[in-house]
Amino acid sequence: MKIRNRLTLLSSVTFSLVFITAAIIIYVAFYQSSQKRIFDNLQRICLLSAIYYLEKDELPITEHIQIREQYNENIQDVLVGIYNENNQVQYGSHLSFNSITPQILKQVRKDKKIKFESKNHFYFGIFYQDNQGDFVVFVQANDQEFKTQNHQLMVIMAVVLLLGLLVIYLLSFFLSKVAYKPVHDIVKQVNAIEASSLDQTMVNLNTKDELQYLTESYNNLLQRLANTFKMQKNFINYVSHEFKTPLASITGHLEVFGQKERSSAEYHETSQKVLQNVQEIEEILNTLLLVSGLKTETGQKEIFRVDELIWDITDKLANNNQLEAGRLKVVFDIKQESKLTVKGNESEIAIAVYNIVENAIKYSEKSIEIQLLLDQEKVQLKITDSGRGINNEDLEHIKETFFRGSNVGKVQGTGLGLSLAAILLAKNNIDFKITSVENEGTTVTLTFAKL
């Protein structure tokens, strides 16, 4: 059963139970109240009848006339029977012998009064002592009007219940339709989303309730799925783009090598070139995995010294024969060692800084300066070169994957270094800014978060 129909049914059943309970309470209260009112009235008539019949010889004529008038006004549809000590009707009408038995008369004399209801009548009796003797006064009233009123009440409540059920069912059905319209819209939007449109988020309902939370959560899920698909797609694109050159080089070497017999030295030279190309492919693969997001550097965020990281990078560049003596100048303007510590994934930050410094060396034939300083209590790393710089148009796209400046000339590169650096630095909450003037140089500023 659909939730909408279940809600409608539940509302109807709940209303029915509440209404039936209320109806029973109302009916019982009305029944008891009406019955009490009838017995109270019969008690008054019973006493009035006793005075009218038994006190006639003791009351003044005028007063007895008033009693008679009251008696005649109240005696309508009521039978009166006054029993003497022999259980004989001495005054009034003879009541049903089936209802007024000697046992009942005896009970009245003992308890002074009694009231009860038979199949079709109400009875009230009192014990009345008079100078003429001791009497039992009984009055009898027909209960037809009482039953009619109760029956009418039951019919009215039954009709109201049926109408109420119909109204509540229709109202619940309508309200559930209104209430579940956002859910229907969500389902419709979800069904419309395909693998090619995962970046298309659902419309925010702005209802400030669980549905809005559900929509936001689903949008977050879609965003993560879209990012995953994008990573996979980017990785495929990156591989097809970057593997062409080293694979073509390997193919070329092997084709040339296989054209004729080669000496041992040529075998060794060719194998070294192929091995170099394979290592290049491996390095590109690792870089592409990081850029695409399919691989992350192992290691948790930790506190480390940024000056030691810089020295490690300069040593690595020197070992790779990428750094000529005297070209790199390192300046530490932070004198307190405690201020040299930062927090982050050291391996990822090392890759990012290495790529930035490597770019500075690659695109500048002049000296390069690495400066470490404090800016508003935040560690700041500046890498400045005096190379060819980047024009304003290229600067807007310089962090994009595979993008290379228009003035790089014949300098070899993949266009991955800065894009990878941007990704890794963003993961570690490091602000990454590039300022450059064409033909004058470039400055990269990294600002670490305060510990």
TrEMBL record:
Transmembrane regions: 7-30, 153-175
Subcellular location: Membrane
One Gene Ontology CC term in the entry: plasma membrane
Catalysed conversion reaction: ATP + protein L-histidine = ADP + protein N-phospho-L-histidine
Histidine kinase domain residues: 238-451
EC number annotated for this UniProt entry: 2.7.13.3
Coiled-coil annotated spans: none
Enzyme kind, highest EC tier: transferase
Occurrences of domain HAMP (ranges): 181-230
A GO MF term: phosphorelay sensor kinase activity
CDD domains linked to this entry: HATPase, HisKA
Membrane-topology annotation of the record: Multi-pass membrane protein
Alphabetic keyword roster: Kinase, Membrane, Phosphoprotein, Transferase, Transmembrane, Transmembrane helix, Two-component regulatory system
Name of this chain's protein: histidine kinase
Organism: Flavobacterium agrisoli
Lineage, top ranks: Bacteria, Pseudomonadati, Bacteroidota, Flavobacteriia, Flavobacteriales
